[in-house]
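User: ok so my PI wants both of these folded by tonight, can you help

Assistant: No problem, let's get them done. Here's the first:
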Amino acid sequence: MIYIILAMLISFLAAAFAIQNAVAVWVRMFFWEFETSLVLVILGSICLGFLVAMLFTMYFKLKNFWQLRKQEREINELQEKIILLEAQINTKNATTGEAVIKEDEV
């Protein structure tokens, strides 16, 4: 119910905004020149700004995601290396007859 009321309020505000800014304006950009409604210029600018912000956000999220994946692979490789080195130490200690003490047992 709250979402319907909120959607109606936003729709009302958007309609009021469009009615108050219905004046025609000329837009000039480089070699282009055209006439359009002020509402379309404002809403188009807002949408373009949102799109640019979303693209930047997606870029940084993907960059962090790939960095995290790389670090997880490095962690797994290092954990496997630790297991291999502990096994080598245990076999070497077992052949020399020394007591094998793991850090977990201390």
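One down. Here's the second:
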Amino acid sequence: MNASRPGRLAERLGRAPERLKVAGPPVAAAAVALALLSGWTAVGGAGRPQPVEAGPGWLLLPTAGGATATAAFFTVRNPGDIPDQLTGASWQFGGKVTLKQHRHQGASGRWEPVAALPVPERGELVMSPEDADLMILNPPPLTVGQWVEFTLTFRNSPELRVKAEVVRPGGRRSS
């Protein structure tokens, strides 16, 4: 019995180069892939946040008769590979600005305040009277053509200062 053990060991050692021929290429390929993926990630190829962008928006002129709220609309673009979220807003007059989104329920729906509005990667958040907006409670007197400054706050991007032009209801602008 003892004599057969050294023979088996020699036999196993003799097959080692065969095993390397079989296992070597997949192991080498995995090592190369890991090195390439690590490099790709290190240079930002695996997704890198980029600051969001927005152009001028529009703000509805409160209707006559003492309207207690109005709404502002912007298009926010995300050129990055990482989704972002609009998490808050303020405006030059202070006061409460609420993020709102329309919740569809069959043929109808309702407006609800939300904690954040999504800005998809390589996409846009397009605010409109039919989908999402910034609701402003108790606005001061505003005039058509007036420009108002807002600061938008995001989960991943720095704050963004933007302006909105006051327009009459129904006179909406593309943002």
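The mean pLDDT is 84. The CA atoms of residues 78 and 90 lie 20 Å apart. Good luck tonight!
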